[in-house]
Structure formats: structure tokens, C-alpha cells
Protein: Inositol 2-dehydrogenase
Organism: Streptomyces abikoensis
Amino acid sequence: GTLGVAVIGTGRMGADHVRRLDEAISGARVTAVVDIDPRRAEAAAARVDGCAAHTDPAAAMAAAGVDAVLIASPGPAHEEALLEAFARGLPVLCEKPLTPDSASARRVLDAETRLGRRLVQVGFMRRYDSEYQRLKALLDAGDLGRALMLHCTHRNVSTPPGYTSQMTINDSVVHEIDATRWLLGEEITAVTVLRPTPSSGAPEGLSDPQLVLFETEGGAVVDVEIFVNCGFGYQVRCEAVGEHGTARIGDAHGLTVQAAGRWGGEIAQDFVTRFRDAYDREVQAWVDAVRRGGTAGPSVWDGYAAAVVCEAAVRAQATGGRVPVVLPERPALYAAPPR
Ligand code: ISE
């Protein structure tokens, strides 16, 4: 039957997911929404027929007609919601980051391991972007030989008030952490962060841009330019350098116009636009897997590993040095590819 989904958190991503589930996804229906702000919850619920508004995640999960949970609240609220969903055996799509630090991510990992079955897909949506998927297929096919380096660019127009240098890692670079692990099929083993003199367009106290370097198990090196107040657009690019050639995605050459002696195109202004298709495919894949009784996509292990790398990166940022990443052994639950 149709999957009844409770959406927890109706901020920017949560509200977009409510709209997505309502308009673009087949096989699911939003039956409940939750927000600590009752007016915001009511406003989101009013958009969907038969959708109830709640302020308490546990009450929403206990409500009739709720078969699965989409967590889109701020990161610090994720752990409690995840543990509540585990207690009820409800499948979850959890927006990134899984949790804000490795200790809490570890508690979630241990809880799911004790449960003995995977209930969570983590919202690393780049894995569902068609360009990323083509790059991954090309690397897996081996035509470029072994991947030696990735050059990544991650730019945002501007940051909201309160955005800190640590958030550039935990909220933004976390995507390159997951993309690196996924594209190369290897864990990250060390992180270094370089901080050029900040742009005059950056808010006081924010290190922007930064250059983040990862080393991987197989000896690949990855550089990430993170520039979150670039002012001109939202850009995510990745070039893989292999032994026999290179491949590059994210140039957004969908449409170029040549007129009046110039050529050019548009640059997206935000991630909701740039990754719209990826979000659609991500949520549809989740709904399909859950309706088949399974789980798919990035796991709690992926969310945990990303949290450990983020912590190392924040330390590297503060010390200016190279910080090794130490991961425990991957539990058997996460060894096999999910159904
Ligand atoms: C935001 O939270 C995201 O997840 C976006 O994908 C990322 O590009 C942006 O920098 C983050 O703030």
C-alpha cells in the first residue's frame, strides 16, 4: 500500500520534502508533519490533504497512518528521533549530517547494530545526482585506470547568520567526504585544512574560502575548495584524475547561449535547485526500498564515518596540521550492499 510518512522538521529542507512527497513521489503520502514551532507545523500540514500537525516527534511516530519517518530537523535533534524510530521499528530517511559529532553517531550505529537490521538511509543526495552516477560508473568500469586525485569545488552564494567555520566542514564539506568515500570506495585516512586570508565578502570571523585535503586508504589525494560566500552562484564540481585520463562533472552546461558577441549560461543559486532531480531520485529510491521491506543507499556506517572525518577536519582546521582519521572496524551489518 501507500507509505505514510511523518516529516520531522519543516524548515527549508523539510518543507521541500513535504512538497516533493506530495507532488513528485509515487507510493507515499505525508500523513504527519512535526515542528517545534506549532505555526510552522500547521502551515506545512495545511498544504497536504489529511496531514496532521505535531510538535512532538514521538507523538507523530505513534500516530495511526505513520509507516516511515523523514528526519529533516537540525542535526542536534537527529539522535533522539532516530532512537525513537528504532524503538518503533520505523524505516527512516535522515537528512545529513546523521548527527553533529562522532560520539552521537556512534550511539546511533550501536543502537542499529543491536537492532540487527538496517532501518536508515542517510541523505547524501549527491549519490543520486545523474552526473555523479556517471562519474562513479566510469571510475568503476576502470577505463581511467586507478583514480589518483579528485579536485572538488563547492561554492555557495552566501551563508545564513550564525554560520561558523566548523559548519563549513560539518554542513558543507561533509558532502565531499561522502562523495570521496563513495566514488573511490575507500575510507579517508587523514585530513589537512588550509585557510587563505578570508575574502572581504566573508562575515567577520568566518574562514572563507578554505582548502581541505583528504588522503585515502589507497593513497589517493582529494582537494576541496569550500567557498560559502562566493556571491555569484551555487557550484559543485568534481574532476577525477586517473592513470589514463580525467573526467569532470558539475559544469552545468545544460544550456549555453551565444548572442551579441558573447556566450554564456546560468549558474544555479542554491542547492534545492541544483540538486532537485537528485533529491527526487533519492526520496523515490527510499520509498521504493521501504515498500519492498528493505533499505538502500548511504547507511548509518556512512553517516558515522563522515562524522569521524568531520571531527578530524575541524581539528585540522584549528591546528593547521595533518590529522589522521581513525575508524573502528566496520560492523558486519554494513558489510554487504543493502537490498
Ligand atoms: C547545505 O546544508 C547543504 O547540504 C548543501 O548541499 C551544501 O552545499 C551547503 O553548503 C550546506 O550549507
Notes: The CA atoms of residues 93 and 121 lie 5 Å apart. The chain has two domains: 3-126+278-298, 130-274+303-324. The two ends are 19 Å apart (CA to CA).
